[in-house]
Amino acid sequence: MNSVSPKSKARVTMSQRRRTVPLSQKRASKGSQARDDSGEDYSFTQPTSSQVQRGLERLTSAQLDQKMAEVVQFILIKDQKKIPIKRADIVKHVMKEYRNIYPEVIKGVTQTFEQVFGLKLVEIDTKNHMYILINKLEPVPADENSMDPGNPGNPRTGLLFVILSIIFMKGGVVKESVVWNTLKKLRVEPGGKHEVFGDVKRLITEEFVRQKNLEYVRIPHTDPPEHEFHWGMRAEKEVSKMKMLQFVSQLHDQEPQTWSQQYKEATADPNSQRPRNL
Fold first, then answer.
1. Contacts from 44-51 at CB under 8 Å and sequence distance 24+?
2. Whole-structure pTM value
3. Which of 118, 147, 218, 226 has CB atoms 3.0–4.6 Å from 222's, for a disulfide?
């Protein structure tokens, strides 16, 4: 009989151990490939036209309509918080195994929003692929989601428009201290709790920023740190600068042309129309 030496047995055992990968380690490896929870779009690669075509051939028109309806519902629910919707979230939570037909689905979803809801789905960040919904219809009175300076709708929207108008009239960027000083004149203090706005500083520097209505940027080489405000990507897409200028000019009982630089910028704004007589 052939006998196996202790050294040979040890080599076989070590080899088996190297080939055996714990289940938990496999799961961790699989999870690291998608990395959807990080919020980044690592798990989705834009499919080619041939891949989209092959994916569509496997579906009935009813299945395609159902998937579009699911994406529409998902976006409507997410948009209630006025925080941009990430493509990665749409793919992860709705598209799933249908991700190869994403371009066709999002095209149909865009048409549905425009034709049925009077809304426009806009990709405000083409690098990180984030969307917002814009109301294409004229705002109705007391509409709390209205982005019309002449009809701010609710107190939070009114506060946002005050800040946006300050930034616009100051040339597109304004120091944080200027905003706080202006709001103090309106009896809105950045510290403490406000009876309408709650934590004012958190609302402005976090919630409005998260909604992409404002950008809150640290000024380099400042000690102690100082910040400045810019218009956010949502505001750039939704807000008419001409209406903003009309709003300010009415407050000062002046014509929009009084502010030549702002008037020039407003007339070049694709969201704006030339002003009627005020």
1. 44/87, 44/88, 44/91, 44/99, 44/102, 46/102, 46/103, 47/99, 47/100, 47/101, 47/102, 47/103, 51/100
2. 0.57
3. 226
